[in-house]
Amino acid sequence: MREIAFSELNFNPFSLIAEDWMLVTAGTQETGYNTMTASWGHLGSIWGHGGGKATAVIYVRPQRYTKEFVDRESMFSLCFFDKEYHNALGYLGSHSGRDGDKVAHVGMTPVFSDNTTYFAEAKLVLVCRKLYQAPILESGFVDRQVMEDCYPKRDFHDLYIGQIEKVLIAD
Ligand SMILES: Cc1cc2nc3c(=O)[nH]c(=O)nc-3n(C[C@H](O)[C@H](O)[C@H](O)COP(=O)(O)O)c2cc1C
């Protein structure tokens, strides 16, 4: 993997996250890590800190084991993959790290770096530093139907805004 500048990136942010999915990963070799598939998120900018570094927003439901790691750590990574890994992402998004070593099951290779963990098989890695965390609030829904459809159990996601500290792409 090699580091590149933001200006070298060239992708459709809508299909990259919503259709191709990503892995949200937090933790280290020393403290343990976990990963899960996500298809909800945003790439953009807010607050203008860090010399104009871009930001990423992710949404994690309370019941995800990965949430314990994202909450505990100061960093998280977002990993994006070629289509051949779609089934693996499906597995990582339908099994919990609480129940076994799902990363070993799909044969991915964790890379422990930058105070977080990402995967050697990724085509793109965004290493993020947490800036902000907050729960989605019931009182915030202008369209109440969205809330009824997505949160019948009122298990609202926490959103996390991360400053993208490093962009890595496959060699
Ligand atoms: C395509 C896909 C997208 C998903 N997107 C999200 C998401 O954006 N946020 C979330 O909290 N869970 C999402 N999930 C569910 C988690 O990936 C899933 O519950 C996973 O098993 C959690 O693993 P963990 O308990 O090891 O953290 C998604 C699952 C799939 C298959």
Structural write-up:
Helix content is 20%, strand content 38%. The chain has 171 residues and is an alpha+beta fold. Strands 1, 2, 3, 4, 5, 6, 9 and 10 form an 8-stranded antiparallel sheet that branches. The structure holds flavin mononucleotide.
Percentage of residues assigned to helices: 10-25%
Task: Extract low-pLDDT stretches.
Answer: none
Number of helices: 5
Bound molecules: flavin mononucleotide
- Alpha carbon gyration radius: 16 Å
Order of helices and strands: EHEEEEHEHHEEEHE
Q: Roughly how many Å apart are the termini?
A: 5 Å
Rounded mean pLDDT score: 97
Strand content: 35-45%
Major beta sheet summary: 8 strands, antiparallel
Shape annotation: globular
Structural class: alpha+beta
Strand runs, count: 10
Give a brief outline of the structure.
This protein has 171 residues and is α+β, with helices and mostly antiparallel strands.
Question: Could you give the topology of this structure?
Answer:
Layout: E1 2-4, H1 13-19, E2 22-28, E3 32-38, E4 41-44, E5 55-60, H2 65-72, E6 75-80, H3 86-92, H4 102-106, E7 110-113, E8 116-119, E9 124-135, H5 144-150, E10 158-169
Antiparallel strand pairs: 1-10, 2-3, 2-6, 4-5, 5-10, 6-9, 7-8, 9-10
Characteristics:
171 residues, 8-stranded antiparallel β-sheet, two-stranded antiparallel ribbon, globular, binds flavin mononucleotide
